[in-house]
Amino acid sequence: MAIQWRDAMSVGSEAIDEDHKKLFMLVNLYEDAIAKHNLFELRMAFQGLFEYTAGHFEREEKLQEAIAFPQAREHLQEHRELVRQLEAFNASLSDPEKPRLSLEEAGRFLHDWIVSHVFREDMKMRPLLLGRPVVR
Description:
Elements: H1 14-36, H2 39-66, H3 72-94, H4 103-121, H5 126-129
């Protein structure tokens, strides 16, 4: 199911919101490639997602530092864990003899991760970005 951007998903930073829109688009491309059984497109979409995620995390972490986000350490740990999972899946794409996840499971994981990460974790920055106090 394609992820659709809604204004309610805005964290209050235009740059981070644009990153999230791009990540949604990349996850949607990955899911489309699975539906079409197109391994080339799937690898390209995943590689784009893998590379873009690293840059997004860097931008988000710099923003958190700039706004003195009190949960930055926990957020950083979540980012590192996701990168570890993406690296493991990337390795399994390169070595089909040792699959760690099915392509469909990976698609569900990516879809669920991006939606839950934006709503559950990234939205915690919104009060600071909008000039309001943060509630833990």
